[in-house]
Amino acid sequence: MGKIITINNFNSRPFSKKNGFTLLELLLVVALMAALAVIAAPMYLSLQAENEMNITSITVGDILRRAQLKAQATDEDSAWGVEIKTGSLTIFKGTNFANRDQSFDENFSLASTVTLSGLSEIIFSPLIGTPNTFGVIKLEHLDGRQSQLSINGLGIINTP
Q1: How far is residue 93's CA from residue 73's CA, in Å, rounded to a whole number?
Q2: If 123 and its partner were Cys, which of 48, 129, 132, 158 is the partner (CB 3.0–4.6 Å)?
Q3: Where are any strands of DSSP class E within 1-134?
Q4: Each residue of 33-85: pLDDT tens digit?
Q5: Rounded CA gap, 85 and 89, in Å?
Q6: Cα(131)–Cα(116) distance, rounded to whole angstroms?
Q7: pTM, whole model, 2 decimals?
Q8: CA 131 and chain centroid, separation
């Protein structure tokens, strides 16, 4: 018959295997994640501000073009214009905003973080679509970014 040999290993403990994380390991992971968040937050805010400026610029340009096309198409046999305010734009029918036909108003809201200055009212002539005024509409974000749209005497709208 064979003899059973037992090995007594005094240095091994049956329950000494690590099955989890230590407090130090958890604190290091939390600290690393916090550091990444601190680095990523300003980058995210910068990208968001850039996006708001781009969207506002494109929206203002598109609304000006829409009013111009309505005038060129002699829609309702009238001139069409745009009232420009910070936070909103209004396409209106008529030769000025004060005497417009309000039943034809089209209101558009813009990002509240972008302020508009410069031209405040542009009227496009029927059929030809030339503006009554030309110049620049300035856009400024709360973080200081600036951009501008221009409209010339022929009614060409240049966006950045």
Answers
A1: 13
A2: 132
A3: 80-85, 88-93, 106-109, 114-118, 121-124
A4: 999 999 988 899 889 999 999 999 999 999 999 999 999 998 888 999 999 98
A5: 6
A6: 19
A7: 0.76
A8: 28
